[in-house]
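Suppose you are handed a protein chain with no further information: no name, no annotation, nothing but its sequence. What can you learn? This example shows the usual starting point.
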Amino acid sequence: MLQRDCEALMLLQKQGLNKKNPASTIVATLFGTGEDVNWLTGNDFPIDADTELGEIQLNDFFDESQKRAITLGLNRQRAVSVIQGPPGTGKTSVLAELIGLAVKRCERILVTAPSNAAVDNMVEKLTDIGLNVVRVGNPVRMSPSVASKSLGSIVEDRLAEFRGELARKRADLRTDLRHCLKDDSLAAGIRQLLKQLGKSLKQREKETVKEILSTAEVVLCTNTGAADPFIRKLATFDLVVIDEAGQAIEPSCWIPILQGKRIILAGDTCQLAPVVLSRQAMEGGLGVSLLERASKLYGGGLNHMLSVQYRMNDAIASWASKEMYGGLLQSSPSVASHLLADSPFVKASLITQCPLLLLDTRMPYGSLSLGCEEHLDPEGTGSFYNEGEADIVVQHVRSLIFSANKLDCLETPKAPPVPAWKRTRYWYGVNYAVGMLGNVPTGDRVKSAVPRPYPVPCGFPKLGEYSPVLGLIVPPAKKKVSLDPMNFLLSYDVSGNMKFYRAEKWIKEGHWKNNQRLGFLNLITVTEDE
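A reasonable first move is to predict its three-dimensional structure. Written in structure tokens, the prediction is:
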């Protein structure tokens, strides 16, 4: 991966502003030189792209901010567009619609992301709208749900008949070879034919791969996967889309960018930043993603934020909006007041009628609840675990389970027994075994929140269209990455030391102070603490 990043930077330095480079306009825009920049600053970033869309009509399903993002992304005059999608704003749906409309204009598109999971998610979305997509990459790292769209799988299907015919010819030649071992010249001729068959298979495979990739409407891979020789040999893409660009280091983004004429960077600068372990690299600027850098260029003229969220109760979303999005993120009326208790499958109670619930591990007289001290992982990983907090979360999940009107609707995966100290990774209770996070579908996940950054994954059933989700709070090294509201739906529950939350001014004043619906748990009962 590092080698591919370095190769991309060397190519950028060598050919970036070369007029023959199809990505030169992108390079000029992102580095502030060239005619394209003069056009951008002189025309104040026009957003009316109706002439670009032609007869294509935008779906009324989308709100105004989403329609504007699609319009900007389809404007061929904009070499670089940044779409900032806070949690629940429909970023993935917007990208899928945008890509679908671009395909209708006969554009060839390369879609990448820093992780295989993000790429697979886009594969599913684009497949659902009927596009001809090809997923390039290591099949072992792909989700089983997209395996049929992988390049290897498609090649195997295309060559199945050819391979069968080739196998029959090889079998016949080997039979002849066994009968001609005493005739050296004849045996040598048969061996030569066998070699030619092997070469013909390899040649046929190369031709098939080239044909599949050339005729695909959308090619998808990871950022570093775009360095695949088969992709590099393809004709220049009309559009490159990088999803979750905020999580990628900038060098990796240049691998796909240099293979396109236009670029759309999608993600959220207020969520996870690139993972950079080297302090020297951080000080050198690698900790700043290309998404973040591009969103600030030209007074933010390249950036457009999706401004309506459709996932969280407004009591939850308003916190994220105020603290991280300058109050610009609004809640859709369809979800603004939703609670778990609104579901016909859930009984009304404190924990289902309260969008914000804190399960405090510190007792009223000041000391921590029994067993709620942190301990070092005995396996020597350097991680911490807190068995007491895990027990608190287990009890809360039990309460949520028994809030269902019908327990027979609950199904959860099974998990093998584990040591007691690993309870922060597994939950057991009420005869509902729970599996690891990786084995649980995204829509059925539950996470507990603790003062340290280790989630406690659990499979939790959907209750109709409602799905209770517990969020994750960690000590904020950076305010913008300390809250991950992507897992918030109808309720936001955290467990931990109240002293910690009171000490964090941005949490207390920005959220708890304005929403006086806190719960206190002493391992036995839950009561409301106003």
